[in-house]
Amino acid sequence: MKRAIVYYSLSGNTEKTAKIIAERTGADLIRIDTVKPMPSGFKGQIMYGGMLATFGMKPEIKKVPDNITDYDDIILGTPVWASTFAPALKTLFSQKDIGSKVSSVFTLSGSGNNAKCLAKLSKFCPNIKNSVSLSDEKNGKPQDNKGLLEGFMTKL
Ligand SMILES: Cc1cc2nc3c(=O)[nH]c(=O)nc-3n(C[C@H](O)[C@H](O)[C@H](O)COP(=O)(O)O)c2cc1C
Hints:
The chain has one domain: 3-Layer(aba) Sandwich (Rossmann fold). The protein is 37% helix and 19% strand. The protein contains 5 helices and 5 strands. It has helices at residues 13-25, 42-54, 87-95, 115-124, 142-154, and strands at residues 3-7, 28-31, 73-79, 102-109, 130-135. A 5-stranded parallel β-sheet has the order 2-1-3-4-5. The longest helix has 13 residues, at 13-25. Flavin mononucleotide binds next to α1, α2 and β4.
């Protein structure tokens, strides 16, 4: 079975987790990124990123590998932005028909709460069977993340 971890990460938390999962599973890593860089300061990121997410906007993304549709199974990683998933992934779903291949989702957030984000994501990815909500190490409890991530990975 051909498996990929498809993720967006602005400040590195989701990417760090994606790499741990890749090491464990051997799945290919595919990073999604916007053409226009995000503001470098946190305030600017919250304002601009929050606007993109809140209004359901689809920022232009860098070219995605053509073979992304060849995977049998996709593990999706996203930070929570304004209680939803990263806008760059919304652009991805509009370009590539991969939503139904997403079986597992991991999220990173300040709060550790991804309920609304998962609900919104499930409209694009109706076959999610396994998910985990991880929180920022600086805000949350990293030891919880470790246990939660282990539990998630045993179901992959
Ligand atoms: C634009 C923006 C919006 C955010 N909105 C939320 C939110 O609604 N809830 C939350 O818990 N965290 C929110 N966060 C925090 C991120 O989800 C969190 O820091 C995450 O770990 C970032 O992942 P990354 O390092 O992979 O980019 C937001 C961060 C940004 C930049």
